[in-house]
Amino acid sequence: xxxxxxxxxxxxxxxxxxxxxxxxxxxxxxxxxxxxxxxxxxxxxxxxxxxxxxxxxxxxxxxxxxxxxxxxxxxxxxxxxxxxxxxxxxxxxxxxxxxxxxxxxxxxxxxxxxxxxxxxxxxxxxxxxxxxxxxxxxxxxxxxxxxxxxxxxxxxxxxxxxxxxxxxxxxxxxxxxxxxxxxxxxxxxxxxxxxxxxxxxxxxxxxxxxxxxxxxxxxxxxxxxxxxxxxxxxxxxxxxxxxxxxxxxxxxxxxxxxxxxxxxxxxxxxxxxxxxxxxxxxxxxxxxxxxxxxxxxxxxxxxxxxxxxxxxxxxxxxxxxxxxxxxxxxxxxxxxxxxxxxxxxxxxxxxxxxxxxxxxxxxxxxxx
Length: 368
What we know:
The protein is mainly beta. 1% of the residues lie in helices and 43% in strands. It is built from 1 helix and 36 strands. It has one helix at residues 49-52, and strands at residues 17-19, 26-28, 31-33, 38-42, 58-60, 63-65, 81-86, 93-95, 98-100, 104-109, 115-117, 120-122, 127-132, 138-140, 143-145, 149-154, 161-163, 166-168, 173-180, 183-185, 188-190, 195-202, 206-208, 211-213, 224-228, 234-236, 254-258, 265-267, 276-279, 284-286, 294-301, 309-313, 322-327, 336-340, 344-349, 360-367. β34 (336-340) and β35 form a beta hairpin. It starts with 16 loop residues before the first strand and ends with a strand.
């Protein structure tokens, strides 16, 4: 199906396939090219939200090329592209489909319990996958390559899951997300132009087990693997390092960039190798590889009978707020007090420990 050279100024005048008030449809092996608005557009079955819960249409093994591109002075928005699902419908499935050089590849707007899985968007002018004002949707095992955004959320998006998607060489962000109660789990982003993920999410959102490495460009704003632009996101167990053995490593500046005034929880991530592992604002970061906020050890010194100060490098990203020092040898057990700065812990004795070899032994612990 080819819509090339259609003389239209209204998006509704040319759609490859438009399903309006139809339920339980199954489309397979359809190919649409040059549709002015959308390759396939699926609308509500009824004016009643409850009736739309029965819709359940599936689109499988379809291909969309150059759909939703500018034709005849049409002003495009987020609803232009390969597949457009909208207006309250529930239970839609789009699987094993491809969108090449469309405005957006796949669009969910005002739908619930929709699922897009194992689809591929390539060189889309805006987003490979766009999610607009949706609840309870999921995008699983999809791929976006060389679009502006791999996956973009717009408006009030809630309870949406992104699982095991792959986002490579998109010109701005692999993920550009807004919303609440968003779950981003096990996705991969590599060599995206500004950031692997831009998360303007709030209230119960989680970012867990993702691999986002070597994201950034010569013209990027953040050049970060992850940008945190919302509040309350739990960022746990992600690989966000800069890998110097593979391409684009020299473009990355930040493992995680938290915008000013934002408060997020950042735990147990690998941010090693980045010039700035974490740019922290008002959030909390603990137990991250490459960004030491807590450390401990045993320091051993040889007293000379005159030295009263012993210096222990703590290796933390900033001056610690908590320091504990415990003597582990008899010669270290004299009266002392502790001072600290951004680099070291200083153990200051009121009376110098006696001369000896490895006779001043101190256990220490420090936390930012």
